[in-house]
Amino acid sequence: MSTLRKTLEELTQATNIFATELDEAGYSNYDFTPDNSPYDLSFLSLEGLSAREDLITAAMNILRLARGPQERLTTFAGTTQGVELGTMQALVQMGIPQQVPLNGSISYTQLAASAQISPELLQRLVRLADVAG
Question: Which of these three, 47, 68, 89, is where a domain ends?
Fold first, then answer.
């Protein structure tokens, strides 16, 4: 699990690589206006594409870390539907969010044992909840 400072370092590194490739392609003022944006990013090198993915991941992690558990759950519940909401409800009913420490870690095996489900099922539920919100 990333810390905020580590995530910010990753964001800075990815931004520098990504921005350098935009600069080299003539998009120094990249801002999504028609004059300053490429139609696609196919000109990026493998390193640039990787940096782009790292940039997106770091941005999502910053949002997750800045929101904290309660707001993340509230945001999740307010913006999702169907299976995703049912998944979140199941996790809450099993008491999973309350057992995840804010500092440190806990294994899927430990969490699953307390909820009396298999670690594999718990991992799938958590992944679905994470993808959705």
Answer: 68
Which residues have C-beta within 8 Å of that of residue 51, sequence separation ≥ 6? 13, 14, 15, 17, 18, 21
Looking at the chain, the whole-number percentage of residues with pLDDT higher than 90 is 33
Residues 56-82, mean pLDDT to the nearest whole number? 73
Task: Establish if 73 belongs to a structural domain.
Answer: no
Q: Are residues 98 and 132 part of one domain?
A: yes
* Residue 36, pLDDT score: 67
* Number of domains into which the chain is organized: 2
Split at pLDDT 50, 70, 90, the class of 53 is very high
**DSSP letters along 6-67, please?**
HHHHHHHHHHHHHHHHHHHTT-TT-SSSGGG--S--TT--HHHHHHHHHHHHHHHHHHHHHH
